[in-house]
Amino acid sequence: MPSKAAPTKIHFLTIRQNQLAATKRPTRLKDRQRFPFESLHLDSAGPTPLYRQLEEQLRQAIWQGTLKTNAPLPASRQLASLLNIARNTVIRAYEQLAVEGFIQARPGAGHRVAEVLPARAPSKVRARPDAPAKLEPRLSRRSATLTRVNNFIGPQRHTSEPLPFRAHLPDYKAFPANIWRQLYSRRLKHSSHFWQLAVHPCGYWPLRQAVADYLVTARGMTVVPEQVIITAGVQQSFELLAKIFIDSGDRVIFEDPAYTPAATVFAMAGATNHYVDVDREGLVVDALPTSGAKLLYTTPASHFPLGINQSQARRKALLAWASKTSSIILEDDYNGEHRYRGRPLTTLHGMATAGQVIYLGSFSKLLFPALRLGYMVVPETLIEPIAGARWLLDRHSPPLEQAVLTDFINDGHFLRHLRRMRALYAQRQAQCIASLERHLGEWLSVEPLDSGLHLIAELRAELKSEDFVAAAKSANVELSAVAQFASEGYAKSQSQLIFGYAAYGEAEMEAAAQRLAKQFAELPKQ
């Protein structure tokens, strides 16, 4: 006969533990301890009581947001043990902070930072009688030029999505993020630990090869990979070039108007900046100084910010001037790929003799702003000096992002994305013009441009650009004026506005134009 099965033993303790585990509230991310309380520094030898020191440091951490609202605080016994102080010291600090409304006690849950903080009173800094006078840093005279770029910098704590008609932005939402994510994952999975190691200051070699191949096939340039320097964007290219070229008093020539952040970098390096007008054919070569300059900066494919295409005759004249005066040209081709009528124009670099032109390109304008990768094409004699300057500055750009961009180019995604964006931006330029003419035609006129990411609006004679920029803020619209990028002598800049369109849909631009119209109607007539 089959034997009887043994009776099942019921472990009531185990069942009870499982029930408790099932009903216990899971730890939420915001409940995890993030603030390093062990970093609090209390000076027992100081004149201020320990509980006052603890109270003040916790209060400051709450004000600064280091201790987030509703964040849990350690139990008094636990914090006392951590800081090696008496428990009563912690209790007194907690009690005072609770009275002031910075923290609150919950039955059975300990203390937490309050969800709503009290109004912040003006801080009163009381110096100790024996404290030394406040140290005022002595900045260089050149640092005063930094004030020109403050308008380009957004808020410190939060970067909101751009509002129409902020310029100089591609449509980052149209970027194929899923493909980028897949390429990223593939590199992390199959590339071992290479991306954790340093690469050459001139950049990840396969990316330099990919960029050189693209410039040869798509832009008709004569380039070898050794000449390609990967940077953290065009702005860093300016910084590197300023370090290896500029001595105090050297002349650098800019178009007027021009890209202000570039001029600022060279001024900070000690250069004397000289400005030359542009007309409908681009830079007025006849106005260039016969004595030449160390460097000349130009945007021939699409003048920044006016969007003018430099004529072929002017390009030849500019190269002849550079040859005669032994000046080096910096060709910023930030918008060379964004051309909507005809093929991209021949680059100055492609027309020049060897060593005459340094070519600058940016991926953040083509793909998305947070991708801080750009490149330079330089004469071979400059490779070592630039590598040394880059090594001293920040070593190199992140290898992983360089590798992913390499795959994005080599797998054909880059060219496909550019083709899609050309069609999209051409459509959006037309939509932007239609919205501006429909709602703002009474105050301004705007013409289409062959390339670029923005339009230039000419204001009627009685209106000034600064009035419109101020009114736009009230209408929740972002605008910039050409005057922001011009010298004091550029008269037209007072009546020209920049309207970006690439990053915005038709409905966004239409709504923004309507808000502008309503706000502009309230401007006083002059």
What is the helix fraction of residues, given as a range?
25-40%
Return Rg in Å: 30 Å
Number of strands: 14
Question: Unreliable segments (pLDDT under 50, ≥5 consecutive)?
Answer: 1-32
Strand content: 5-15%
Describe the protein.
The protein is α/β, with parallel strands linked by helices and 526 residues long. 37% of the residues lie in helices and 12% in strands. The protein has helices at 12-23, 50-64, 76-83, 87-100, 177-190, 205-219, 234-245, 260-268, 312-325, 348-351, 383-393, 399-410, 413-440, 465-474, 506-520; strands spanning 103-106, 110-113, 228-231, 251-256, 272-279, 282-283, 295-298, 328-332, 357-362, 374-377, 444-446, 454-459, 480-481, 496-500. It has an eight-stranded mixed beta sheet with strand order 3-10-9-8-7-4-5-6, with helices on both faces. Helix 5 crosses helix 12 (399-410) and helix 7 crosses helix 11. It is globular and about 85 Å long. Mean pLDDT is 87; it is low at 1-32.
